[in-house]
Amino acid sequence: MPSIAGAGGGRLFSVNGAAAYWGSSRRRLLLLQRPLFSSLAGGGTGDDVTPHLPVVIVGAGPVGLVLSFLLTKFGIKCVVLEKNVEFTRHPRAHFINNRTMEIFRKLDGLAGDIERSQPPVDLWRKFVYCTSLSGSILDFDKIISPISVAHFSQHKLVDLLLKKLDGIGFQTCLPGDIGSSTQDLVLENKILMGHECSSVQLTDKGILIGASFNEAGRMQERKIHCGLLLGADGARSTVRELAGIHMKGQRDLQKLVSVHFRSKDLGKYLSRERPGMLFFIFNPGAIGVLVAHDLEHGEFVLQIPFYPPQQMFEDFSTKICEEIIVKLVGWEPSDVQVLDIKPWVMHAEVAEKYIGCDNRIILVGDAAHRFPPAGGFGMNTGVQDAHNLAWKLCLLQNGVASPSILQTYESERRPVAIFNTELSVENFKAAMSIPAALGLDPTVANSVHQVINSSLGSVIPRNLQKSVLEGLFSIGRAQVSDYILNEKNPLGSLRLARLRSILDEGKSLQLQFPAEDLGFRYELGELVAEDCAETTYEAEKQKHSKRSREYIPSAKAGSRLPHMLMRALSTSNEGVFSTLDLVNGDKPEFALIIAPLKVSYELARAMLKIADELKLPTKICVIWPQGSVDAKVKGSRSELAPWTNYVDVEEVPRAPVNSWWEMCQITSKSVILVRPDEHIAWRTESDRVTDADSEVRRVFSEVLCLTSRIQTLEKPLLLLLKSPSNASNSHPPSNTASYRT
After folding, report:
1. Which key words tag this protein in UniProt (predicted)?
2. Structural contact between residues 287 and 435, judged by C-beta atoms closer than 8 angstroms
3. Mean pLDDT over residues 654-682, rounded?
4. Which of 12, 364, 479, 694 is 20 to 30 A from 623 in CA distance terms?
5. CB atoms within 10 A of CB 389
6. Nearest Cα to 95, choosing from 427, 558, 586?
7. Are 444 and 422 contained in the same domain?
8. How many CB atoms within 10 Å of residue 694?
9. Could you tell me if 492 and 355 lie in one domain?
């Protein structure tokens, strides 16, 4: 457990300038054009012997690697610490939803690499049950998104991400590759394998991290000074523990053994006879869920529930696992090769807060939330966390946004995690409705286990308890024997009818949630709240609780920008692209979407002028009706002069929708400001704005959190601005706080 060794007197970061202030009387922005935090600017000072980096990321899973890629692309120097000396080959997560694939489209073509590398869709688009009944066919039509979901194992995704990072100058290093170097340039753009974050210490200049590693059989510790520590180190996060942040929710929903194995025989059989992604297998000999990661190469993961202390993880030897596989398959494949066996516990929890230790430690991904796997929300939510955070850190480094922009990461992403936790639990219960309908109610198994623990646990030996438990479970599994589960048996016929009803009504396990995947909406954060927004987050939750899974495009503030195909005008390129591509993926850039109306152009000019003052990358996107002629389109040039950062595009609507504005249920008088993460920051109707300059200043003040800084951070900022920025002493002062495992 972490311990606090001193008073928390350390400040957020040393500040080198970049204070921004909106004058209340003159509505004027005064901006010091220097990085807001020297910690984010990077670089050691004078006689420093400790490396000083803007950001240290702990954890080199998909979330940590996506974070490092985005930050590096946005110009923020970082290093990644990974406690393992090699990347796991255990597949783990495998379902990538629409929104995550949309993000991956802009990671140097990562989505295309996944689509080319994943198994053929026809081999994984079904859920298959032991009764031969299949689940619903997934919808892969690209109407609501420019890209489909994907089935791609986590370890293969990590391989692709490492290649992308290598392409932008990142290196993967073992402890011996670095030695005892303490130079910034040696550590930046590195993934340090075998380095575990073992301590953190708050200082006036940032945060001092102790990274322990084993070199030549001897444990050593490397000290790294940074501005921010981003914890992406998974469900059992060391960073979260060091920061003293607790999880809230349901613990120990189920304990499982995950068995990674290969069998080309089984892969060929399922490809030919019963292709699918998930196989829920219930028979008198065993129960388990088989995940077909790659039928062509015969790669599988089998999930087996177990109940300690009567059943222990150590009981699941390679031989025992092979026997269980044979029982569940129904015949003996000749080439079963067990590669790895891991225990894991299913939780449904969200961190009480995402940001701690004076805003210096930020949790991302599974470190901030732990979901049941039902629905595949875990890795997807984590990648979207990283996407939300990276561009905000860039604006912070560039001195454009207030420090309180960090809090919008928590206010936006934590409610999404809470909602996804509830949805995952709901989906897990739906999955359990299948065995319950067959007479294998999991709640009964849990009750039996609890009774044995409470009544026999202190009376009889564990081996005898195990025999009693497994004997009772064997009686329970007999409910799915051929003798009972057939149409001629009245009880079996009733259960099969109940099963068909569950499947026909769509009440079993779901994997696609378009309403939640694409339709979630930030209510609080880096956006301008709409006075007319009648839909609250609670209302959204109530709507979804009624199992409404239909995605409805929305242009309300906080929503993801709705997708429609567009075509660039006044260019020789005849290709089409998504409205999502109007937002630049290579740098944090805002986009103002307007129709070619006089009053909207006026607002656009004000937007470009104020953005130029702020040095905030912004462009105008003018959406023209289908069939617009060049003569009219050229009007944007004169209307927006002298600025050239605009694009004219033409709608390519798809029936039954006639235009993008109609699809969004708004009029063409609307103007929409889109953030770098493709979420809408602000929406209004241009003819309602009486003073364009004042309105744009107000909007940017709220979106960049400048207003809240005046109210809550003006005094701390003045203190920080007075602190020495070139102190040569790298050792923390006495008024620091330390945390150590």
Report:
1. FAD, Flavoprotein
2. yes
3. 91
4. 694
5. 26
6. 427
7. no
8. 13
9. no
The DSSP result for 430-466, as a single string, is HHHHHHHHTT--HHHHHHHHHHHHHHTTTTS-HHHHH
What was the pLDDT predicted at 505?
Answer: 65
Shared domain for 236 and 372, answered yes or no, is: yes
Local structure of residue 679 (DSSP, 8 states): B
Rounded mean pLDDT of 213-228? 90
Q: Answer yes or no: are the C-beta atoms of 693 and 389 closer than 8 Å.
A: no
Could you give the number of structural domains in the chain?
3
Q: Is the dihedral of CA 148, 152, 155, 161 positive or negative?
A: negative
pLDDT band at 76 (very low <50, low <70, confident <90, very high): very high
Cβ atoms of 182 and 194 within 8 Å: the answer is no
Long-range contacts of the stretch 117-121 (C-beta < 8 A, 24+): 117/152, 117/156, 117/160, 118/150, 118/151, 118/152, 119/151, 119/294, 119/295, 119/296, 120/296, 121/148, 121/151
Q: Write down the pLDDT at residue 213.
A: 93
**Could you tell me if residue 28 is inside a domain?**
no
State residue 49's pLDDT score. 52
Size of the chain in residues: 741
Cα distance between residue 96 and residue 110, in whole Å: 12
Q: How far is CA 468 from CA 202, 439, 476, 598, in A?
A: 53, 20, 13, 80
Residue with tokens 């590195």: 190
Both 486 and 557 in one domain: the answer is no
Name the residue with tokens 């390519």. Answer: 652
Q: Can you spell out the DSSP letters for 223-236?
A: EEEEEEEEE---TT
More confident residue, 455 or 530: 455
Decide: 669 and 599 in contact? Cβ < 8 Å.
Answer: yes
Instruction: Round to whole Å and give the CA distance between 383 and 668.
Output: 33
Q: What is the pLDDT of residues 675-717, one digit of tens each?
A: 999 999 999 999 899 999 999 999 999 999 887 433 333 333 3
Q: Between residues 197 and 309, which one has the greater pLDDT?
A: 197
CATH number, domain of 685, equals 3.40.30.120
Most confident among 129-133, 557-561, 717-721 (mean pLDDT): 557-561
Residue 633 within a domain: yes
More confident residue, 276 or 25: 276
**Same domain flag for 446 and 594:** no
The pLDDT of residue 464 is: 76
Distance CA 644, CA 637 (A): 8
Residues 163, 167: Cα–Cα separation, whole Å: 6
642 contact partners, CB below 8 Å, separation of at least 6:
none
Which sign does the torsion angle of CA 179, 184, 190, 191 carry? positive
Token pair of 683 as six digits: 């929406």
Examine the domain organization and report whether 203 and 181 are in the same domain.
yes
> Residue 220 and residue 216: Cα distance in Å, rounded?
10
Tell me: do 608 and 470 sit in the same domain: no
Asked whether residue 561 carries a pLDDT value surpassing 60, the answer given is yes
**Is residue 571 over pLDDT 90?**
no
Contact predicate 316/304, CB 8 Å: yes
For 584-602, give the DSSP string: -SSS--EEEEE-S-HHHHH
Residue 706 corresponds to which tokens in the numbers above?
Answer: 């400048």
In angstroms, the CA 271 to CA 274 distance is 6
Q: How confident is the model at residue 10 (pLDDT cuts 50, 70, 90)?
A: very low
pLDDT digits (tens, 9 = 90+) for 575-617: 899 999 999 989 999 999 999 999 999 999 999 999 999 999 9
Same domain, 199 and 337: no
Q: Which residues pair with 739 in a beta bridge?
A: 200
- CA 639 – CA 648 distance, rounded (Å): 12
Q: What is the rounded distance in angstroms from the CA atom of residue 332 to the CA atom of residue 266? A: 9
* CATH number of the CATH domain containing 483: 3.30.9.10
Write out the two tokens for 632: 């009219």
The domain in which residue 259 lies consists of 250-347+437-505
Contact 43, 725 (CB under 8 A): no
